[in-house]
């Protein structure tokens, strides 16, 4: 039973990583850049949601929507101001800029909200704390259940979006060949901006879900999950939607099980150790595809 | 007749490299015009400049009497220029059908079904493989898909960059037959080829490009018989 409970917690944490990883992966796919500020957008989302409920007295769901709206706009602004002017220059310049944006967001949060942790109230407070199964031997929190459901919905939604809609297909086309996409009449700038918007909206959702389960909210809250989600995206095969989901879930499960059964100090080392082994065996990640050039 | 495309004195640079040095040419309605020349002469660069992926520092490019020299690439497509780039550059991870849908990105919705039918008529092979992932097609099929994709936007001018590259001779014949069919059906064609013999045999007019400059021009027949062209591009 304890194992089952650990597994559920792992799946739940992994679901958050998966949602973040999806944003990382989509943005990487389309603009071939690692947006290291992605993790900090999560933190901003959580703070906005916190302010919504704590200061504006909004209901939790409305605060979540507010967070999504703010983060969507933030993602587009970051892309437009910081990354777009650098498009076509070396990838190193963009990478350094992303790190700069990351520190900018963390320090802005530090100025606005201070360094003391805020106690985040869960999005699912209204449901009570948890449900008991098997005569109380297994307790599952509502946060864990809803986080898992959210990840599944996001995955289904994104799969449908990229395979069925015109905008989603345009996104795939730009990811695959930016120049050829322009020759189809696709506006690459708009498409990249849209991808940042979607990724950042997902980051807001992930931030609220993360802080619902782990309520201490600080300016650095997004940093570690951001790195883990990046790991998850690489683990699953960067650029691939199912890869990001699978990678995220696995990283979460490995982290929680590693912490429970091996060593809580070493759990992060175990996560990255597994990543290294996977990349040694399969450099493109679990579901990453290698494009073969055919002449 | 009427001129479809006028390129006037364009100069294109890759950083410090001066790739196109004052090229001018034009394409009239209903023609097949070909640009021939050696590898690296600037043929593909010229097409990229017309379709807006590259910019000229000087001169002008007019399409149907309005300047497109400053128009972004994604808007040029809807004006009626379709560019089949070198190496096909189909979307390898998408199905044949999805590639064709991408080709119709700026096409009016009520024209799409009609255009799709036309493409399948021209390339029956594609119709048998609508659900196949494009990256798994053979080279010839990929070329057909790239051309079909370009036709989905109702182009007035179709620009083809090295359609014969890497194809077996029998496929080259097939592709050139299709090019002539498309032209007969009313599409004006600007063709870039290293296979000068094939290109000149179908072209109404031709230009020879050498290191960024046009050195010769004339009808396809004239150039095919010119000593210089025969020596340099037709193997004596």
Biggest pleated sheet of chain A: 2 strands, antiparallel
Q: How far is the first residue's CA from the last residue's CA of chain B?
A: 35 Å
- Regarding CATH, which class of chain A? Mainly Alpha
The counted number of beta strands of chain B is: 10
Radius of gyration of chain B: 17 Å
Rounded mean pLDDT score of chain B: 94
Low-confidence stretches of chain B: none
**Helix/strand structural class of chain A:** mainly alpha
Report on this structure.
The complex is a heterodimer of chains A (295) and B (236). Chain A is 71% helix and 4% strand. With 295 residues, chain A is mainly alpha-helical. Chain A has one domain: ABC transporter involved in vitamin B12 uptake, BtuC, CATH 1.10.3470. Mean pLDDT of chain A is 91; it is low at 291-295. Chain B contains ten helices and ten strands. In chain B, the strands form two sheets. Chain B has a six-stranded mixed beta sheet, sandwiched between helices. Chain B has a four-stranded antiparallel beta sheet with strand order 2-1-4-5, with helices on one face. In chain B, helix 3 (96-103) runs parallel beside helix 6 (139-151). The model of chain B has no long low-confidence stretch (mean pLDDT 94). Classes of the chains: A mainly alpha (295), B alpha/beta (236). At the A-B interface, helix 6 and helix 7 of A face helix 2, helix 3 and helix 6 of B.
